Q: What sequence folds into this?
């Protein structure tokens, strides 16, 4: 039985042999190795779930709605697998489905759900980062939730999913210049919201002094 | 006509994201050095970007609900056989148990293949090493060598979409390691060998590297690089699908 051992002669080694290479794929048992891998689509879909759920939570700002969106997204992806042209684009394809589901949900006006504090979204996590200042994180989360869905989307894609501008342009099917201008507007808007939050807090009277 | 030395908002944000061409980035750096107000504004944007990452990135570490995974496992697909079902089930099990194990510090056996792959990356084992050129890649000889080494119908994945170029193919008996260099010259390695028949999928940090193991009933792949979890997710998908396409 011939196994794929280290090449003993140059003739055997396809890197040095000029002639055609004949492969006899054999399994460890000696039987021909048939390619019966589990569906790459299933593997890849499962692999994407944690990141997809994170995206949904950050987009929706509500864990229950996020989970409903991911479940619907899984159903739709399983039903539309044939529409995915390249498996390596699965992540973007799923995010697009999920975003459209979210927009549909908002348009129907069914619910947005209660805005949840980031610490509630992550209540079962041990954050690897040092515990952030609660009030600062709450303000930030609140400001993000007040952004338009389009602005939240682009900020998440660049800051959390770490996509390049080109990848974002492909995923959103918009020109690169639109990605850049939309991102600039989203960041400016977030800053405005954060600064207005700060202003609101500063204007509040000090309870200890007034009581 | 606009002044080429004018810095637009888009330039500033591209600078923050490392997406600005070097000549424009130099212009921005000069402007920041000369204008403290502009520098403060950019620092705030950078802080906001970091806050996104700090707050939302860990949300991906939560355990995926088992019913989602069961739904994928149940999906009707012509030709699905018991081996496929078992392999997917094993992947799903890892997905459910992995995060819980991490949380409660339950030791999850990483398997020797991860250690062997990381040793190979560090150059510990001896084996044949071949530098690869673009011309070589066109000849299919490297695909043939890889197929022969791991005795499976695989090919060298093309990761150029993410800016990664093949730098070398290392053959270690029945295993092979493909080395890539990324856009910032970072090393990404893809170690491939025959699988022990079980399915595994996991992503974690080991020896200061982000590591992903993706194994089906035929091949084990271990991917390693000094990259983020998000980048690994994309590279791993591209690698696995490219390898088995």
A:
């Amino acid at each position: 039985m011939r196994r794929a051992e280290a090449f003993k002669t140059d003739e055997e080694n396809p890197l040095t042999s000029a002639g055609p290479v004949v492969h006899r794929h054999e399994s460890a048992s000696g039987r021909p190795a048939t390619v019966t891998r589990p569906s790459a689509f299933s593997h890849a879909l499962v692999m994407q779930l944690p990141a997809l759920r994170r995206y949904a939570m950050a987009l929706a700002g509500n864990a229950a709605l996020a989970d409903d969106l991911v479940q619907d997204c899984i159903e739709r992806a399983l039903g539309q697998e044939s529409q995915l042209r390249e498996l390596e684009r699965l992540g973007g394809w799923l995010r697009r489905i999920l975003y459209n589901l979210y927009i549909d949900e908002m348009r129907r006006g069914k619910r947005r759900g209660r805005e949840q504090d980031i610490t509630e979204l992550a209540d079962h996590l041990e954050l690897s980062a040092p515990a952030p200042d609660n009030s600062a994180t709450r303000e930030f989360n609140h400001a993000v939730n007040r952004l338009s869905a389009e602005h939240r989307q682009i900020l998440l894609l660049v800051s959390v999913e770490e996509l390049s501008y080109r990848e974002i342009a492909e995923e959103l099917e918009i020109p690169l210049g639109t990605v850049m201008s939309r991102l600039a507007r989203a960041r400016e808007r977030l800053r405005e919201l954060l600064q207005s939050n700060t202003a609101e807090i500063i204007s509040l009277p000090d309870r200890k002094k007034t009581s | 006509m606009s002044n080429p030395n004018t810095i637009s908002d888009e330039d500033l944000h591209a600078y923050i994201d490392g997406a600005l061409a070097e000549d424009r980035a130099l212009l921005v750096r000069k402007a920041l050095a000369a204008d403290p107000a502009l520098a403060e504004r950019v620092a705030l944007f950078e802080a906001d970007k970091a806050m996104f990452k700090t707050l939302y990135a860990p949300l991906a570490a939560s355990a995926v609900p088992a019913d989602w995974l069961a739904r994928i496992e149940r999906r009707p697909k012509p030709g699905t056989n018991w081996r496929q079902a078992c392999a997917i089930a094993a992947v799903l099990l890892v997905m459910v148990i992995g995060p819980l194990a991490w949380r409660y510090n339950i030791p999850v056996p990483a398997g020797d293949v991860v250690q062997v792959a990381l040793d190979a990356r560090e150059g510990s084992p001896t084996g044949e090493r071949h530098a690869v050129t673009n011309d070589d890649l066109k000849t299919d000889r490297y695909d043939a060598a890889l197929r022969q080494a791991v005795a499976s119908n695989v090919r060298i994945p093309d990761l150029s979409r993410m800016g990664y170029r093949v730098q070398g193919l290392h053959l270690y008996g029945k295993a092979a390691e493909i080395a890539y260099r990324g856009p910032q010259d970072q090393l990404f390695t893809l170690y491939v060998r025959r699988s022990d028949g079980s399915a595994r999928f996991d992503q974690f940090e080991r020896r200061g590297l982000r590591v992903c193991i993706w194994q089906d009933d035929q091949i084990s792949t271990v991917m390693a690089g000094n990259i983020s979890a998000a980048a690994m997710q994309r590279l791993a998908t591209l690698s696995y699908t490219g390898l088995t396409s």
